[in-house]
Structure formats: C-alpha cells, structure tokens
Amino acid sequence: MAEKLLMKGNEVLAEAAVRAGCRYFFGYPITPQNEIPEYMSWRLPEVGGVYLQAESEVAAINMVFGAAGAGARVLISSSGPGISLMQEGISYIAAAELPCVIINVSRGGPGLGGILPAQSDYFQATRGGGHGDYHLIVLAPHTLQEAFDLTVLAFDLADKYRNPVMIYADGFIGQMMEPVELRDPIDLSTLPPKPWAITGAKGRERNLIKTLYLEGDKLEAHNFRLKRKYDEIVRNEVRYELYMMDDADFAIAAYGTSARIAKTAVKVLRDKGIKVGVIRPITLFPFPYSVYESFANQLKYILVVEMSMGQLIYDVEYSVKGKVPVGLLPHAGGIAPTHEEIVSRILERVESRGDQR
Amino acid sequence: MKLVFSRPKSMFDRQTHYCPGCGHGIVHRIIGEVIDELDIRERTVGVAPVGCAVLIYDYINCDMYEAAHGRAPAVATGCKRVHPDLIVFTYQGDGDLASIGISEIIHAANRGEKITTIFINNAVYGMTGGQMAPTTLPGQRTTTSPSGRTPDKEGYPIKICEMLSILDGSAYIARGSLASPQKILQVKRYIKKAFETQIKGLGFSLVEVLSMCPTNWGLPPAKAQKWVEERMEALYPIGEFKMPKEG
User: Fold this and answer.
1) Top-level CATH class of A3-236?
2) Element of type H or E holding B108
3) What is the ipTM of this complex?
4) CATH code at B33?
5) How far is B233 from chain A (nearest CA, A)?
6) Count of domains in chain B?
7) Contact between chains at A199 and B68 (C-beta distance less than 8 A)
8) Thinking of the domain A240-353, which architecture would CATH place it in?
9) What is the pLDDT of residues A61-82, one digit of tens each?
10) Mutate to test the interface with B, among A22, A97, A196, A198 (most CBs of B within 10 A)
C-alpha cells in the first residue's frame, strides 16, 4: 500500500532506490548527501542488501562497476568533488554499458567550493563528464515527490538502455522536507533477466565485460553503436514540464530548485498581467531542445535562471538558434535566486520593449 | 598412448601475445591448472588489469571483467558482494597494484574481502614501454630512470607482501618466483592455497610472483630468469608471509 510521509530529500532518494529494487550501495561521505549513505547503511541490510562504505569515491564507483556488471541494481551517491573523482569509473561504466544510478546532490564549486546548494555541475552531468564520447541519462527533480518518482524511473531506464543514469539534485532538494507518497516496492522477480551479466559461466558461454578495443575500426564501431543508443534515448526519453506556457509571451528556463522559484515568480507576474511561463527540463540529457524551439516564434524573451554561471543557457540558446533573445540570471555558492529578482528581470524586459499588455 | 600433458580445460586454445621469456604465460597457465584442479571454472570470475595482462581474458575461459587501471580489487569487491558464492580473482601488475591501485588493494585486504589477487611483480611498467615502477630495484635502469633508480630521488621499492601481511583482513599472503621450474611449482602451490583460502571463506588472499620482463630489462630470457633469482629475490624474499587461521 502506498504511504504518504514527511521526509527529507536525501532519505526520499534512498528509499525510492530500495523500492525500485536497489540492493547494493557503495559510497563515501560528502556533504550535502550524507543522509543517503546513512539511510542505506541500515535500510539495505533490512531487505537483504549490502551497504559498503568505500575507501574513496574512486573505489566506490569501481565497486559499482563490479556490482552492476554482476547484474544487480546498484546506487551510488555523492556531491561535486566526489562526482569529479568518479568520472573515470563513470566513463568505464558507460563504455561497458552497465546499468546503475548515480545521485549528485550538487554543491557549489569549483574546487572544494562549499557545501551549500548549487547547480554548477550541469556541464559535467550533461556532457558525459569523463573521457570519451558518452552520455548519462540525467534526471533533475524539482520536488521531493518528483525525486522519488524519477529515482524509480532511473533504475528502469538504466536497465532498459544498459546505461548509467544520474539523478541531478541540488542541495536544496537533498536537505528540504516535504510530504511524499511512497510507491509500493517492486517485485524483484518481475525484473527482466540480464543474460550478459557476470554470474559464473555455468551452462553457457562465458561473459566478458570490457571497454578496450585496440583496433581503430572496432573502437569506431563501438562508438557508433553507443551513438545509436544515445540517439534512441533522445528520441524516446525527453521529459519536460510546461508551466503556464499556452499564452506566454515570456518564458523562464530553469530546472530543479531554480524552477520552483521560477514558478513562484510566474504567479506574481501573472497577477500583474504579464503572460509568462516556465519551460522546465526534467531530463537534462536528453535535453528538450525541440520544445524550446517550438516556442521560439511565440516568445519575446527567455530568461534562463540557474544556480551556475551560465551553463543551462548554452542548451537554451542552441535550442532557439537566435530566434528569440535569451537572458541569464546566474547565482552560485549556495545563493538561490529570489522570485523577486526573477520578477524584476522580466519586468525590466517588459518595460524596455513596451511589451506589457 | 597415455596423455600426460595437455592444455588446462579452463584455457582457450590460443597462443599468447606475450614476448619471448615473459612470465605472464606461465602464471596464466598455473591459474588455469588450479581452476581445473579445484573444479571451479563455472563459478570463477576474473578481473583483468591495465597493462600487458589486460588480455588475460583471451586466454582464461571464465566470466571476466576488465577493470580500470588499479581498480581491479574494487571491481572484484562489487562482484563478490553481489555473488558471495562465486570465486573472484584479480590479476594485476606492479604499476597497477603497487602504484595507482595501492589504495584499492590495501583496503580490499583490510576489509578481509574474500577475493584472491595474483600480483605480478616484474619491477617495470611493461606495456607502456619500460618506465620505472614502484617495485623497480635501486640502481635499475628504466626509460624514466635512465641512470638507475636512486632511492634518495625516486624512493624505495615497495614490498607489498610485507605491507599487506600486517593487516588483520589478510588471510593468506605469499611471494613466489618464476626463476626455476622448482620455484614455479612452488608458485602453483601458493596460488592453489590462495584460491582454497577464498573457497573456505577465510579472508583476503594474495600471491606475489616475481616475474621476467626480458624486453624491457634488455636481457635475453635465460638471463632475465637469472636476474629474478639473483637481484629480485635478494630484495623480495620468497615464502609464505601469512597463513590462514582455519575455522
């Protein structure tokens, strides 16, 4: 039976993974995601799983490589600096086409940066992050209910495409509390078999999980095969929310916590008679390029609001290809945009162009 | 006619890519023989390193992973935790295990991870062309220590068996050498004991094997074997460093 509980974001992410059939967690402490490993350290043994604190993020992600290769549903979580350390392993996991879920409860960088929430790992998350041509599927929740739902979805997408999936949650999502309806746990026996997994070569040809292709033509063929998969993901898995966009003259582009604040700004602006909405990417990869593009002729202006110094804006500008002016409201270091700032940036635009109606 | 010698069933019928006089082929065969003798091929998993032996999966016929450089013990840990009944081994060289992967091997041993590591020490980076390794001997010339390794500049050779045997999680730690047929048989006894340690669930096991790299040492194979005996064994004594505590 589904139950509704008041929970902290990090614990929602962890519980969602357990209910999605995850039985293995490997990690290393880092703020602001520590409630995830702490939760898993007692929760996984309860359901016959294994929690293991690794000696480093480098080791942890390679334990994920081993466990995912062994056919299990596996979770790992970290934040900025730790995610950077994992990039080697993530590249190998993508190359070997192993399914796993990686949570980044993002904090401010660069360097040690700080422990306050940020969205500054957008490029790293959406461009692969490590060496070589590859992509993660990247899901960005903006409420805790969505954090739960997307985490469950993440495990299904990871298995379906044999690809690592990242939940890109900023520190606000990790640390806030909200009521969440928890879906019933899945029945593990209903999961499709993984005939490619390492289980011991009993009564079958042996399985081999590798990423080395010494001959150029074979490595190129491997890359083209991966590309076809990413193309399929782009065709099938784009997710987004249109908030009050039907009649909008202005749009705010934002995801995660920034999108929550943008929605508040939209309500204030709508009360003033400004027709404004939000186009919120839910999947950061694949990005909803065509959705932004489809609004390009309707819109007078797009304001990109992000807790980073101008990363999301690259994808928005690429979408609309100069057909509509795009502005940026950046923040960093744990400073979130206020809805008043967003309101005044849109109002400035309205007044300067005499577009108010 | 009676068949007295054949390829282990756990090995593919294939010639290796290794240079003449290299030790990898010998140790691969030992592993194949041990897997056959223990009758565990269908529940054995190998983890290949980065280095010349990355292609070990071309020779040993069991489920295998290819790990990132130095990370084989972490990959093996992930597999073993999911499938505790499988027999999981890593095969790693000195650059892989004693340099970039030193953290992973120490912590796998210290956790008492029930895996087996075969550690090939030939005192040089082989695949990249003969650079200095953490186990390179003082005075040994390599492409990155052209005048010979000097401890005051490049530090001292790392003694892995000595280090790991003080950890409580290590159950069986031994070092053998490929310097003679007799010593090769000793290596086989060690490797078999290491696998048996894992099968019995007694903890982490590792066998270091002092091995030849004639190509990068600039020595003909026979002299390379002599160099293992005279120079390497003097610095890295062979024998059993830690014995498992049975039940």
Assistant:
1) alpha beta
2) helix B102-110
3) 0.97
4) 3.40.50.970
5) 32
6) 1
7) no
8) 3-Layer(aba) Sandwich (3.40)
9) 999 999 999 999 999 999 999 9
10) A198
